[in-house]
Amino acid sequence: MNTLTAWLHLLHTPGIGAKTFRHLIQQFGSAENILATRRTELNDCRINQQSIDAILHPDPELIQADLNWLEQAENHHIITLLDRHYPPRLQQLADAPAILFVRGDPDYLIQPQLAMVGSRTPTASGLQTARDFARHLSHAGITITSGLASGIDGASHEGALEGIGGTIALVAHGLDLVYPAKHQQLAHNISRAGALVAEVPIGTEPARGLFPRRNRIISGLSIGTLVVEAARKSGSLITANQALEQNKEVFAIPGSIHNPMARGCHQLIRQGAKLVETASDILEELSPHLQITSSQVHQNTDSDKKNPTDFTQTLDPDHQKLLKCLAYEPTSIDELVNLSHYNAAEIASMLLIMELEGLIISQDGLYSRAASNNDSAGHY
Question: How far, in Å, CA of 99 to CA of 96, rounded?
Answer without folding.
Answer: 9
